[in-house]
């Protein structure tokens, strides 16, 4: 008898089965509908399955006197983890559209792929406008898929209500966080320079930390029947590792190798992201140099030389070093959250390994 697949492989298999069902259904509605479903499938390819890994580990972390996680809960966790990956795909489709990003994971972003499909099909009208409109709707479709898969996975599960509450909090916070990120690119100008780092950290918390690590952990734990103390310990650990994760992402968005990250080096600078790196750099600059930095941020035409100039400024002002110190501080604080917690020792060891992978990565 063949052995069961590893949990993360089972998540991928669940995704494949679900997406195949959705493509089959869409094909009955015509070629255009099937094309949209295929675009949804394409958006799910690749990635680290980070959120799924934290969700599954959060589920296993809940101590129980009767032994390992019951098979029904484990199967539900695999389905909910798959639903979370679909929601992540939706967020990326919308994020790339908002940021006008051309690539994702080394391939055309969804709106660019739809734009190309419009041209290749010989359709009339504005291909770029079609791609953007199609990506809005594709992201919405992926959110619907995520809800469908969540509900399928929670049928007859006694902890379904608690799991739904955590999932709903995750959806709300990341949506607000995404808006805060967009707003900050304009709102920074009317706020005191000394508040910019704090405001950037608020964006990081809601847009990424809660969504990427804290809530996946708590969703998995709620599914396994966690008590308030377990949810609190995992929440504190997850939020701090999530903050370190986002700060690492900010560093890679400025200094990352395009061949590794799948996005052009310095893309966050061209997009005008108001990250902690930028806030720390501005604090160390004179008013004139600060104005010059502000003028360059968000300029889509920045060439490699201008990107290098901005990178040097971030290094020379000590902003990069300060950000690395902050990442390390969040990691230490997260580790303390697990001390003495009533959590599975094996899962705690796995959480620490996942934390290192999330915060010391190069892509």
From TrEMBL:
Its cofactor is Mg(2+). Belongs to the FPP/GGPP synthase family. Keywords: Magnesium, Metal-binding, Transferase. It comes from the Bacteria. This is Polyprenyl synthetase family protein. InterPro entries: Isoprenoid_synthase_dom_sf (IPR008949), Polyprenyl_synt (IPR000092), Polyprenyl_synt_CS (IPR033749). Pfam families: polyprenyl_synt. The keyword Nucleotide-binding does not apply. It comes from Microbacterium mcarthurae. The keyword Cytoplasm does not apply.
């Amino acid at each position: 008898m063949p052995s069961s697949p590893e949990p993360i492989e089972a998540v991928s298999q669940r995704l494949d089965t679900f997406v195949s069902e959705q493509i089959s259904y869409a094909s009955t509605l015509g070629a255009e509908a099937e094309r949209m479903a295929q675009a949804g499938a394409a958006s799910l390819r690749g990635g680290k399955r980070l959120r799924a890994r934290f969700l599954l580990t959060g589920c296993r972390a809940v101590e129980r006197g009767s032994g390992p996680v019951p098979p029904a809960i484990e199967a539900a966790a695999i389905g909910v983890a798959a639903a979370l990956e679909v929601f992540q795909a939706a967020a990326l489709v919308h994020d790339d559209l908002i940021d006008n990003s051309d690539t994702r994971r080394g391939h055309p972003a969804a709106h660019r792929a739809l734009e190309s499909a419009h041209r290749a099909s010989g359709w009339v009208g504005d291909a770029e406008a079609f791609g953007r409109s199609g990506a809005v709707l594709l992201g919405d479709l992926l959110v619907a898929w995520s809800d469908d898969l969540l509900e399928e996975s929670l049928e007859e599960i006694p902890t379904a209500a608690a799991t739904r509450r955590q999932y709903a909090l995750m959806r709300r916070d990341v949506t607000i966080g995404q808006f805060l990120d967009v707003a900050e690119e304009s709102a920074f100008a009317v706020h005191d320079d000394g508040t910019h780092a704090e405001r950037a950290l608020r964006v990081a918390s809601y847009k990424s930390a809660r969504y990427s690590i804290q809530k996946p952990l708590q969703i998995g734990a709620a599914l396994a029947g966690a008590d308030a103390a377990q949810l609190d310990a995992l929440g504190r650990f997850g939020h701090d590792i999530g903050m370190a994760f986002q700060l690492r992402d900010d560093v890679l968005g400025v200094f990352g190798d395009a061949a590794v990250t799948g996005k052009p080096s310095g893309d966050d600078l061209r997009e005008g992201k108001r990250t902690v790196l930028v806030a720390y750099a501005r604090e160390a600059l004179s008013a004139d140099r600060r104005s010059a930095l502000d003028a360059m941020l968000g300029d889509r035409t920045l060439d490699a030389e201008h990107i290098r100039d901005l990178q040097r400024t971030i290094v020379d002002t000590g902003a990069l070093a300060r950000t690395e110190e902050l990442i390390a501080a969040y990691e230490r604080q997260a580790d303390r959250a697990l001390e003495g917690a009533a959590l599975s020792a094996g899962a705690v060891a796995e959480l620490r390994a996942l934390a290192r992978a999330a915060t010391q990565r190069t892509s």
